[in-house]
Amino acid sequence: MPKKIDLIAAARPNFMKVAPLFHALSAQPWCEVRLVHTGQHYDANMSDAFFADFDLPKPDLHLGIGSGTHAEQTGRTLMAYEQACLADRPDWTIVVGDVNATIACALAASKLHIPVAHLEAGLRSRDRYMPEEINRILTDAIADVLWTPSIDANENLAAEGIAEQRIEFVGNIMLDTFELMRGRIESQGKRDELGLSVREYAVVTLHRPGNVDSPETLETLVEALVRLSTEVTLVFAVHPRTRNRLEQHALLERLQAASGMRLIEPQGYIDFMNLVTGAALTITDSGGMQEETTYLGIPCLTVRPTTERPITVEQGSNRLIGASELLSAAQAVLKGECCYTASRPELWDGQTAGRIVADLARRAGK
Ligand code: UD1
């Protein structure tokens, strides 16, 4: 009998982690994959666009969770995924990343004694103000198998007393996705469509509650971006959470009025990476972009006090900044005053899905 494996996807940053693993597992004769979408992200440009880009089939199961408070979102996912497991029990549950569905599905499965594997385990910002940090700590505490993207993650898990045999250093799956899509990213015309020239613009994304939920911080960021847009074209892909906050605080008009500002909707993966690969600079608070820019050697200013991906600062092209430093830090990058000696961290090589499949086969006795 093939092993039944549930692969859980919930929100935008999950889809690029799930895609290479879905394709690698689907090619194995010893397992059957059930793709479960919890529905945390539901807008076409936050979800469907990624399924299309990655050639992912329609999910086998859609839990329809949607938005809500953390407790509502996590609780509804916990209940819905428990029902799914009771109706059709998997042999393994694989969760990825650090969103609310990651902890909810790991918890539901583990209480039913279904082995859980966590992909992208061991990352720590040590900032419990971030909801994702709570999700990471709890998921790693209960998962049976912890697949880590970088060596610092192994060190974090060891420091938390997690047994070595539960941990496997597999590398960063995000770069598998990039390499799988590289040809399509390079030939995609999003940059041309927007009339942008390579290295003559910056890409901006901001959505963290710590940046966009406080009106003061959001205003500081908007002011800095408006001023920066007089020096370089800014392409700002506005996340739905950010758009809501900008509208609430009457800041959207200020961005719209800035002549060098290009406000665009959230993009699919291929279009967005076409923009990122040609950028002179990225300004973000996302986790994934810190990794992708390190891999590409593109300067990245991360507007956050901490990062769970310190390797992108130590070895890569990432720098953490506060909102009030944004303008001066960006100007310095554009003037070439910041030297980045970016190198690629170990096992960020596009081969992570293969290592995961081998580890899972061994653990599943296949
Ligand atoms: C979630 C993740 C975060 C990840 C981010 C990427 C958690 C705790 N956070 O944060 O780690 O970096 O996704 O996007 O899981 N909304 C829409 N359409 C959608 C999805 C959301 O309009 O398809 C709106 C919702 O109404 C909500 C807001 O955006 O008000 C935030 O969505 P939510 O999924 O709660 O959190 P994110 O900020 O996206």
Description:
By secondary structure, this protein is of the alpha/beta class. It folds into two domains: 3-172 and 349-363, Glycogen Phosphorylase B (Rossmann fold), CATH 3.40.50; 182-334, 3-Layer(aba) Sandwich (Rossmann fold), CATH 3.40.50. Helices cover 46% and strands 16% of the residues. The chain contains 17 helices and 13 strands. Strands 3-2-1-4-5-6-7 form a seven-stranded parallel β-sheet, with helices on both faces. Strands 10-9-8-11-12-13 form a six-stranded parallel β-sheet. α1 crosses α17 (352-363), α4 packs parallel to α5 (131-142) and α7 (173-187) packs across α13. The longest helix is centred in the N-terminal third of the chain and has 18 residues, at 70-87. The mean pLDDT is 97. Bound molecules: uridine-diphosphate-N-acetylglucosamine.
Q: Any descriptors?
A:
seven-stranded parallel beta sheet, Rossmann fold, 366 residues, alpha/beta, six-stranded parallel beta sheet, binds uridine-diphosphate-N-acetylglucosamine, 2 domains, 17 helices
Provide the fold topology.
Elements: E1 3-9, H1 12-26, E2 31-37, H2 48-53, E3 61-62, H3 70-87, E4 92-96, H4 100-111, E5 116-119, H5 131-142, E6 145-148, H6 151-159, E7 167-169, H7 173-187, H8 190-193, E8 201-204, H9 209-212, H10 215-228, E9 233-237, H11 240-248, H12 252-257, E10 261-264, H13 269-277, E11 281-284, H14 287-296, E12 300-303, H15 311-314, E13 318-321, H16 326-334, H17 352-363
Parallel strand pairs: 1-2, 1-4, 2-3, 4-5, 5-6, 6-7, 8-9, 8-11, 9-10, 11-12, 12-13
The protein binds uridine-diphosphate-N-acetylglucosamine.
